[in-house]
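User: Could you go from structure to sequence for me? I need the amino acid at each position, not a summary. Structure tokens:
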């Protein structure tokens, strides 16, 4: 895969570009000296570097993902240029960035230059800095000769494999050579600096009365200490520091992350703000982000600390994996034995990256005993969920669960993105078990996939399609589109047996950084014979700034420089009721077995037959007794030890799988029964 495949998901929603024309450029203006303390308490002054030919002043944020990403890059540049007479200073002007957060940034990103706390934003105001990261280059007379970005590798919703222009490095080289900077101003991309509010804030919309509850409802589940997001939004100080960035991403409809076209479908996890809520945010920020009366702060439900589910068991990768500072890290697969000595039904799961700085996503699959993992694409249908940007924990409804046979192992698929410093990761998955007696339906993950895709070089709108046919009546629960860096749009459409069509989900702007699982507000019935038709569009042109190589012909593969076209979905058999149980088996003295079959037929059914491998699938050969007073048809067979497939045949014509038996096989979804020996 590319050296770094994508920005952390949160970067997409906290960064915004600003053109230099939006404000007066400081280039060519002198800068007065300043004096600030670093996070250890030591004073630093611009005068301390009077013997340096050039000084780079970089405005950074301890919690801004883009600033974090570039802190390591700046350290590399410092190592390269400090021997040539260039000094580097980092300025932290965010009011919300504490000294401990700055120290953490320095440690995690191995920052080699001083990081200074600009408590009152006085230095940021002097430079006219507004974003993090934003850099300024001062010449020997301390006049600004360059300001803007560090390079063009990372931006809003994209990440190039490598920068195409090292803007800061080029400016330094030109100045050291006595030349004029060829491009003295570039666009700064990043988070707004969280400035101290100098004027008294006022307005009818306040944090305590309006904004606190809004942030708690839509944002705080991720934006709280110890959770997925890079910063918290659980206090007034948090919210005020990020106010301008909050307004920006709300107006740009990038937060909360949701990519479904509102014209189609209704989803239980739709977290969009209403138009009224958006107006409240804009007015609050416009009026200076007033706090309001503390008495107006509502009693908000407690947030879940740590795990968002309460796991019965936590299963962790066997040992830490070392992620290099740079280079290519292909998808990693780790086999973990959870010690399942008996069949397990799983009603909730949550993947937790051990190191969020380098784990882009984590997926967990169930590997049943005797199954070779990654043998074909079938393994994709054994998904247990995971930790993916934008994806909540898997929490199934009452009476619904996923199945892991005794002896199953778990496969961790982890996508690592090097961030400039060597890191280690040891990710985990938490699982909540269901009582087998309460499970009515088995939730299965299925896919519509096109492994034969071939995307031509330079094609900005390459269309790829895939279908899945429902072989029996089913209930559709959730839809999850998956592509890689060239993915542009994705659509799920149902084509019913009567040829009518319905768009179930339309994602017009697919984002690899935010891989949402779209959970239907109500399960949708898919009649037997329905086609789930998926259409994906890929952009393999130079217009796609995340494109690893527009010159390549792209084929199917799990590495991010390759592509995938997979329409995942969760479903269950519509008529399944596992509480009914599979056929009951009793051993006989002669070594054979008596098997009792019981089938609850739809009301009005007059006759039911039993057909299977034991009677050569004759549809009217073995008539069952019934119906009894409860509408059940019953019969018994004496069978030798072995594995059999069977179905019930209503009125000798309509073939039905056993709703109480979760085991099925083959294109016709035959029920499977093993008699007399372990499977």
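Assistant: Here is the amino acid at each position, in order:
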């Amino acid at each position: 895969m590319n050296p770094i495949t994508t920005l952390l998901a949160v970067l997409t929603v906290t960064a915004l570009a600003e053109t230099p024309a939006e404000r007066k450029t400081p280039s060519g203006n002198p800068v007065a000296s300043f004096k600030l303390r670093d996070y250890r308490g030591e004073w630093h002054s611009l005068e301390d570097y009077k013997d340096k030919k050039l000084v780079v002043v970089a405005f950074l944020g301890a919690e801004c993902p883009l600033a974090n990403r570039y802190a390591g890059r700046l350290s590399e540049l410092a190592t390269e240029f400090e021997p040539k007479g260039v000094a580097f200073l980092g300025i932290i002007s965010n009011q919300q960035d504490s000294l401990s957060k700055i120290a953490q940034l320095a440690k995690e990103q191995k920052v080699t230059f001083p990081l200074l706390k600009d408590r009152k934003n006085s230095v940021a105001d002097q430079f006219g800095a507004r974003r993090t990261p934003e850099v300024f280059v001062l010449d020997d007379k301390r006049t600004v000769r360059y300001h803007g970005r560090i390079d063009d590798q990372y931006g809003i919703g994209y990440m190039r494999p490598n920068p195409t222009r090292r803007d800061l490095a080029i400016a330094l080289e030109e100045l050291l050579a006595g030349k004029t900077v060829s491009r003295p101003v570039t666009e700064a991309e990043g988070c707004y600096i969280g400035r101290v509010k100098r004027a008294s804030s006022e307005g009818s919309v306040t944090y305590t009365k309006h904004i606190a509850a809004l942030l708690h409802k839509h944002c705080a589940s991720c934006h709280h200490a110890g959770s997925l997001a890079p910063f918290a939004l659980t206090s007034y100080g948090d919210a005020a520091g990020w106010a301008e960035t909050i307004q920006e991403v709300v107006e740009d409809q990038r937060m909360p992350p949701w990519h479904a076209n509102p014209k189609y479908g209704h989803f239980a996890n739709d977290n969009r703000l209403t138009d009224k809520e958006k107006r409240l945010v804009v007015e609050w920020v416009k009026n200076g982000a007033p706090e309001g009366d503390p008495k107006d702060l509502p009693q908000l439900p407690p947030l879940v600390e740590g795990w968002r589910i309460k796991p019965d068991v936590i299963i962790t990768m066997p040992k830490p994996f070392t992620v290099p500072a740079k280079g290519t890290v292909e998808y990693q697969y780790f086999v973990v034995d959870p010690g399942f000595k008996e069949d397990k039904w799983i009603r909730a799961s949550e993947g937790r990256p051990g190191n969020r700085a380098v784990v882009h996503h984590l997926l967990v699959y169930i590997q049943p005993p005797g199954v070779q993992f990654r043998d074909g694409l079938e393994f994709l249908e054994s998904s247990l969920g995971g930790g993916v940007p934008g994806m909540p924990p898997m929490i199934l409804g009452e009476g619904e669960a996923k199945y892991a046979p005794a002896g199953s192992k778990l496969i961790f698929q982890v996508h690592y993105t090097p961030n400039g410093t060597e890191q280690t990761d040891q990710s985990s998955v938490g699982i909540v078990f269901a009582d087998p007696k309460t499970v009515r339906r088995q939730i299965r993950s299925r896919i519509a996939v096109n492994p034969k895709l071939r995307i031509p070089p330079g094609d900005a709108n390459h269309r790829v399609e895939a279908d899945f046919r429902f072989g029996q009546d089913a209930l559709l629960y959730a839809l999850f589109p998956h592509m890689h860096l060239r993915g542009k749009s994705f659509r799920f459409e149902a084509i019913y047996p009567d040829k009518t069509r319905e768009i179930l989900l339309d994602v017009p702007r697919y984002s690899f950084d935010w891989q949402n699982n779209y959970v239907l507000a109500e399960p949708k019935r898919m009649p037997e014979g329905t086609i789930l038709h998926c259409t994906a569009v890929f952009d393999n042109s130079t217009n796609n700034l995340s494109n690893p190589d527009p010159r390549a012909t792209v084929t199917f593969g799990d590495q991010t420089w390759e592509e995938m076209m997979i329409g995942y979905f969760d479903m269950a058999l519509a008529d399944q009721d596992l509480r009914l149980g599979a056929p009951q088996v009793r051993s006989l003295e002669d070594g054979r077995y008596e098997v009792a079959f019981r089938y609850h037929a739809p009301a009005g059914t007059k006759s039911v037959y039993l057909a299977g491998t034991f009677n050569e699938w004759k549809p009217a050969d073995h008539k069952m007794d019934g119906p009894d007073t409860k509408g059940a048809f019953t019969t018994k067979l004496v069978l030798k030890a072995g594995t059999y497939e069977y179905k019930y045949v209503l009125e000798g014509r309509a073939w039905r799988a056993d709703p109480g038996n979760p085991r099925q096989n083959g294109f016709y979804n035959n029920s499977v029964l093993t008699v007399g020996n372990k499977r």
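One structural detail worth keeping in mind: The two ends are 40 Å apart (CA to CA).
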